[in-house]
Amino acid sequence: MGPGGKEDERETGGRKHFQLVTFFFLLTISSLLAPISGFALKTCRISYNIAKCDKMGLTAAPRDIPSAVKGFDLSENKILRVLVSDFENLPGLTQLDLNRNLISQIDDGAFANLIFLKKLNLNNNKLVTLGENLFHGLSNLTELRIMSNGIKAVTLTSFKPMNSLKFLDFSHNKLKHITKVRSIIQHLPNLRELFLKKNDFTTFHSEELTNSSLQLKALDLSQNPITDFQITANVFPNLTWLNIGGAPGKTPVILGVRNKTFFSRVSTLDITGLRMTLVDNRTLLGTVNSSLSSLRMNAMKNNITALTHISCTIPTLSTLHVRHNKLTYVSSDLFKLCFNIREIDLTDNKIKKIRDDAFSSLQSLKTLSLSRNKLSSVPYATRTLPSLGELDLSFNNITKLGCDDFANQTKLRRLRLYHNSIASLAECVFKDLVQLQVLKLQNNHLSNLNGAFRDCLPNLRQLLLNGNQLTALKHGEFRGLQSLQNLSLHENKIFNLDKGCFVGLTNLTDILLQNNQIRETEISKGVFNDLINLRRLELRDNHIKYVNNSSLPSAPFSRLSRLETLAIPSQHGKGKSQLPRNLLEGLTNLLVFNIRNIQLASLHKDMFNGTPQLTTLDISSNELMDLSPDLFSPIPNLKSLYVSRTSLRSLDYLTGANLTKLEFLQARKNEFSIISEEIIKSVPSLVYADFQGNSFTCKCDNAWFIKWVEYYNQTQVFDAYNFECNYPLNLKGTKLLHFDIRSCSVDAGFLMFLSTTCTTLLFMLTSFTYHFLRWHLAYAYYFFLALLFDTKHKNKQPPNQYDAFISYNTHDEPWVVRELLPKLEGEQGWRLCLHHRDLMPGKPIVENIVDAIYGSRKTICVISRRYLESEWCSREMQVASFRLFDEQKDVLILVFLEDIPTDELSPYYRMKKLLNKMSYLSWPRAAEHTELFWEKLRQALRTREDQADESFRLTVVDNQW
């Protein structure tokens, strides 16, 4: 292990410990606070736990889909191949849609990890062969759609893993031989519905399909050019739905059903377009004689009258479809045997005329469809149907309705008259329709209702009048419709609403008035006051425009306390608009309010004071410059907010809006440049956000938002990978999520490593310094103090208060008192400064020392072993040394009381350094010449200060060490 190995281990361990502590701390905090997190998909969006990736031009399955999704929609893309790795991270999928791609290859085991998949759609691709392990792992699949691929071959074990499959659509492929289906169904014991439409089968022999009974309930063999259809065994004992409608061709089908009981449970049979002789038709219908209830004989090539006669002899038959048979005239003979029929569909037959007694035998008929024909009036024949409950006359050429057109239709419940050319209604036209519940009159030419709804239709629930040319609604226009719940009047030309035009509609819940010419003055009349149970009111695309936000004299919707949806977007007119502050007064149960694109300039902060239940608000496509947080205070239950295409420059108003329940936020194409942390934290329940098309800034102000979008997973940020920066100019066009945010934040782990390393190094440096350099530091400290005090004393204190300051250790005080003081003060007359006598009490020791040294002409250091060991003596010498070096004068006198060998002076390098540059006096060596010692000391004290450049050398003793 290298020299730093153990230290690196300790550092890594410390970092891991820090991360672990941080993780548990954040986990604890997150358990107390609502999670604030986001995520973005590069190409898809999540809706109701389904990943929506359809119509994106994808060439491969995206890999950034959250693993928790239940559905994955990849339809209408350009995927060529399905890889093993495409879905391995989505084990919880229950439905997968790959419809309309270019898939020609699926790797073995590509679906192996999808053990919970229930539905798989592979329609409209380019698969040709199904391999052995293609569906490996799909043991719980119940529905497989694989139509329109051009599949020609299926291996024997392709479908073996799917033993739970119930529904299989294999239509529009190229199997050609029914024997290939055998390898499919033999491994599907639970199969109930099998669709083999248009696979180019020319024969169908039951023994080629299987040797055992199948549990199929529905079988579709339509649009196959089958010429030989043989059932020789009871392989479909549970079949109830059978479609063997033919494909275009000239060769008739040869039919052979060995036993009439083989189809004894079939209740729905479709033989649309089948080419078969009347004899074979009779034989086929004879096999279902005891069970058939619904028969479709559309686009038949045989005599339709003869086929109808054969069909109507089946006693259980109740529904008969004879569409697309080119009937232009309905005679009395066509249905003369259909006594038990309850539903007939004659849609798209080009019928121009119906004999008056054509339906006289249909006394049990409940439903009749004559849609998409060429009738010019309501046929008289319908009046002979006393039990008729539903009549469809849509998409004909009817121009008028007479008072007797629906005479005696007292049981009629649903009447469709839309897409005709009806110009007016007579007041008596619906007089007998006392049970009618649904009336559809949309897309005609009605310009006046002529009182048709004033006194009849007491049970009508739904009335559709949209797409006509109505211009006005008169007082009491709908007075007779006491039961009406849904009224559609959109796409007319209504501009006049008389007060009381909706009187009587006390049970109305939905009214659609969009795309008309209604103005605000019409609404102010109180026209909606009678709609006390109204739940939905649509007023988009009209001419409703207010010029200021002043309160109206009378709130237009004040009586609609049960209204839940109010929409008045996209109003026509020039100039900016306002909304009266009391517009919503009385709407205490309003849930949805839509005012998109009405050139709105502002919203008064009191606008929603009366709508406490509001959950959805759309104010997009307006010219709003600012919104007050107070605007949202009365609506704390808001869940969806649309603020796209406005002039708003920020979402700061959310920070004080108390929208804690907001889940959906759409704010496309605004001027937002920064999405701050405070904004996101103000909406803790947000699950979907759309900020597409804003002018983002690539700066550190957006660093938190970028990190939030990329790494967290509660809130989906739609299309975030395509967000572009507009600022700064050098980054214009750069993708926001490509902006490098590493320079905007400090890595916590690195910061911890750095601080730990610095602490360790500081500890090591401190230890080293204390052990080896503590005297250097002490000297530097006092050097600095001396410098400060030197400046102070030069400027403020008079020099030379004493001739000498005596620096000595207390153990050497007897020598100083008995020898030094008598000679220097007593005999020679010098003024000396001594610790115990002259230093000022109460002052700091350091300051006393510096004052004494700088207040004396000389400093005499009385040196002994104890002196060298004394900390304070050492500091006195350091200050005196500094003065010596600073003033470049002979101000320091060294007097040794003991002979100290060189090796003992080695630890005291500063003293040794001084002795290498200066002479000194030695008391032990002057034992026989004490008078000379005192004389030399006197001469040293007499050295003048102005002779700083003169070198004074002592010669009493040899200074070599």
UniProtKB/TrEMBL annotation:
Top-level taxonomic group: Eukaryota
Keyword Transmembrane helix annotated: yes
Membrane topology: Single-pass type I membrane protein
Pfam families reported for this sequence: LRR_8, TIR
A GO cellular component annotation in the UniProt record: plasma membrane
Main location: membrane
Positions of transmembrane segments: 20-41
GO biological process, one term: inflammatory response
Keyword Membrane carried by entry: yes
Matches recorded under Gene3D superfamilies: Ribonuclease Inhibitor (3.80.10.10), Toll/interleukin-1 receptor homology (TIR) domain (3.40.50.10140)
Subcellular location: Membrane
Domain TIR residue range list: 800-941
Keywords linked to the UniProt accession: Glycoprotein, Immunity, Inflammatory response, Innate immunity, Leucine-rich repeat, Membrane, Receptor, Repeat, Signal, Transmembrane, Transmembrane helix
One GO molecular-function entry: signaling receptor activity
InterPro entries: Leu-rich_rpt, Leu-rich_rpt_typical-subtyp, LRR_dom_sf, TIR_dom, Toll_tir_struct_dom_sf
Family: Belongs to the Toll-like receptor family.
The name this protein goes by in its record: Toll-like receptor 3
Naturally occurring in which organism (per UniProt): Paralichthys olivaceus (Bastard halibut)
